[in-house]
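Entry:
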Amino acid sequence: MNDLSDLALSIPDLALSVRQPWAWAIVMGFKDIENRSVFSITKGSLNRRGRFAIHAAKGMTRSEYLDGYEMMRGIGIALPPPGALVRGAIVGAVEITDCVKQSDSPWFFGPRGLVLRNAMRLGAPVPSVGQLGFFNWKPSGGEIAAPAKWMTARSDDVAPVRAPRAAAPVDDLFNQGGE
């Protein structure tokens, strides 16, 4: 499918916005639990099941990236550099099969966890504006968020790492072009 509107038609209408680097871990098929707060319970989002689009939120702090980097490194997953993570777009889809209060998954931090399976990443992200919780998304027609200065700077804290061997190449989904 070459036309953006055709591509958008094949993605579930309902999306869940997730901050990076967790959105990357979901669509790559590594993250099998998406943690949600007690606040989510009051909005009824923990009762949802089925296939949903994954929206990579526009925001990502250095601290969030480093927390994800350390956590994933601890379980053998090499996270791409922060500037390579797409933000502000639909990046894939996943099926939610259950909501749990406890899990042996290394991804579970609680208090509740949405159980994920059958992750799929898009060959090209679709720019979209996100919202809190589940939402009906639509293509924004805008641009994907450009990396912040800290995301492209080399430092001892945030050094580029190789993509995991088990994962498909990340260039098609996470390359923001023009490199």
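Residues 63 and 69 are 10 Å apart (CA to CA).
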